[in-house]
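Deliverable D5.2: sample structural annotation.
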Amino acid sequence: MVWDKVKQKLRDYEFILYLFPLLALGILNLASASKGMEVSYHIKQLFWIGLGLVFFLLVSSRDYRTFEAYAYPLYGLGILLLVLVLLLGKEVAGAKRWFVFGGMSFQPSEFMKLAFVLALAKHFSDHPPLDGLRLKDLKVPLLLVALPILLIALEPDLGTALSFLAILGLVVLYWGMEPRALLTLVLLVAVGSVGGWFLLKDYQRERILAFLDPYSDPLGSGYHLIQSKIAVGSGGLVGKGAGGGTQSRLGFLPECHTDFAFALFGEERGFLGCLLVLGLYLGLILWGIDTARKAKDEFGAFLAIGITAKFFLHVAINVGMVLGLLPVVGMPLPFLSYGGSFTLISLICLGLLFNIRRRRFMLTP
């Protein structure tokens, strides 16, 4: 009996075995990416990690159910920030995605992901599905997801916008749908995808075509993907060592500190290093799923699976993009890619997961 309680306690803190190695590997990777650059991204990332850990402690120390009352107000705040960034945000490469304060920047879409998951968990906990979800049960969730998708697509950031729909889809699939409703939803998504092709901008179509055949435009739309695959492939089994990534040091690999951080890691750490990182992510995601399964109330369960879905999508999409399995989109990799607001929100999300897990025995069944 005592050993069972000890094992449960250790399992609660298991995320530490995944988080801190990922943070350490991320700092080392950013140190390599910063060589030859004017900005020391690994130093800036340390600041955001420190701030994020402070918020982790604050969020995990307070009963997560108190956040349920603020779910819709936080969602409204997120929508307001998305509107303001379109009006007042700094324009970079034709996109308005960030507020800039001195040398610091903040991306409202990252905050919106957390606010959306909170609002989604609040809705489903107030209206828990008895059996499988039906289409009529998705009216409010689809409205909740439509607003951020529209505003983020206007920035424009289509990849991030569609990630909201993917989060909703994973939450719905985890909870279960009636077979007929699921089939109808799949058909609607298929038809919408075909029709959406004609609504894409030219550069967005070029990215998809470059994914299918990157060598059709090797110096243009296919450049990122080609250089990424070269970097990962050249790493071999054990990699070229820290600071030995020629693709990044010679400037061939773009955005090696953000979206293509995994490509740099693969070049320097090799196949075995990539397996290690993917294993750490897998452990963290399985821990999140187990947390959702063991939550004692619907709000905690939906919140846990929504946060876990967010982590899973970032890992799956970023790694798939780097390896040429998915089109190139702006999707950073948790704890390895540089990003202030992204790292901060990721640690807050992890704090909420830990909160849900360790308070499961404090709730009445």
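Annotation notes: The chain has one domain: 2-362. The mean pLDDT is 86.
The annotation will be released with the project's public dataset once the embargo ends.
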